[in-house]
Design goal:
By secondary structure, the protein is mainly α. It is globular, with a radius of gyration of 19 Å. Helix content is 73%, strand content 0%.
Length: 285
């Protein structure tokens, strides 16, 4: 193996470790894909995770903005050179070039990530949707290059599923986001249900429960909107995405089962369910 190939293989391994360590729910769903497709999912996740770590890491906002801009600039420079020696970007560049992913997707993602350093809350859901276009919907668009849909009509459902996943994360991670000084629940919703004080106090009140029921119902509408997209994927891709959808949907059920308390502990899908979900999915096909 040449030095270049060895570095590329190691980069894919780095991205896989990031995926398995930080994104276990989707990591196990990815096992439904053929071995040749999985590394590209790991590469896309590795890129997003690395950017998240820049944004959520220690340090002043100005320093993070500089680091984010530098990493994004390095990506586009390496795409132009058609190669990279960065531990993460080598696999990302290879995946983008091999699958023909539009680089503009990465610009939109980086733009939304920069918003996390500048915007702490969103007034309306429409405002939040503008952020999620680059932070979530665009991930669904990127994934289509891996999943190989049979119709261009898969684009809308893929975007909606990306949004559904992120809304689920927002509801699960309310407390962690507060710790970072961010609120992803629309301010107008907090006022409508009188739940703003409960959020600040991290208290499960009747107002908080009403708000969470509303937000969960809206999130499930996105899952429902994404459902027709499964029929537009090859069977092996549909099993992967169907498994991820079921696992993420289970997070919403666990929030409900926990009495909408997303403050005292992080709601999780049990590891045994994550690990066995791909096996159960295969037996149903």
């Amino acid at each position: 193996m040449s030095l270049g190939n060895a570095r590329l293989a190691e980069s894919y391994r780095v991205c896989r470790r990031l995926h398995r360590t930080c994104g276990t729910t989707y990591f196990w769903a990815t096992w439904m894909l053929p071995a040749g497709m999985r590394p590209h999912v790991h590469a896309l996740y590795g890129f997003c995770r690395h950017v998240d770590d820049i944004v959520d890491g220690a340090g002043e906002a100005a320093g993070k903005e500089a680091a984010l801009a530098a990493f994004g600039g390095r990506l586009f420079d390496d795409l132009a050179r058609e190669g990279s020696d960065d531990p993460v970007l080598a696999a990302v560049v290879n995946t983008v070039l091999k699958l023909g992913i539009d680089p503009e997707c990465f610009r939109r993602f980086l733009r939304s990530m920069a918003m996390d350093l500048q915007v702490s809350s969103y007034e309306t859901f429409e405002d939040l949707a503008g952020y999620m276009d680059g932070s979530a919907a665009v991930i669904g668009e990127m994934m289509l290059s891996v999943l190989r849909p049979t119709s261009e009509s898969a684009l809308g459902p893929a975007r909606d599923l990306g949004v559904a996943f992120q809304l689920t994360n927002f509801l699960r991670d309310v407390g962690e986001d507060l710790d970072r000084g961010r609120i992803y629940l629309p301010q107008c919703d907090l006022r409508r249900f009188g739940a703003a004080e409960s959020l600040v106090a991290r208290r499960v009140s009747p107002q908080w429960v009403a708000l969470m029921r509303f937000e969960i119902a809206r999130t499930r509408e996105y899952y429902a909107s994404a459902e027709p997209g499964l029929a537009l994927l090859p069977p092996v891709s549909a099993r992967c995405i169907g498994t991820a959808r079921a696992l993420y949907g289970g997070i919403l059920e666990r929030i409900e089962d926990n009495g909408y308390d997303v403050f005292s502990q992080r709601v999780r899908v049990p590891a045994v369910i994550k690990v066995t979900a791909p096996v159960r999915a295969r037996t149903r096909i």
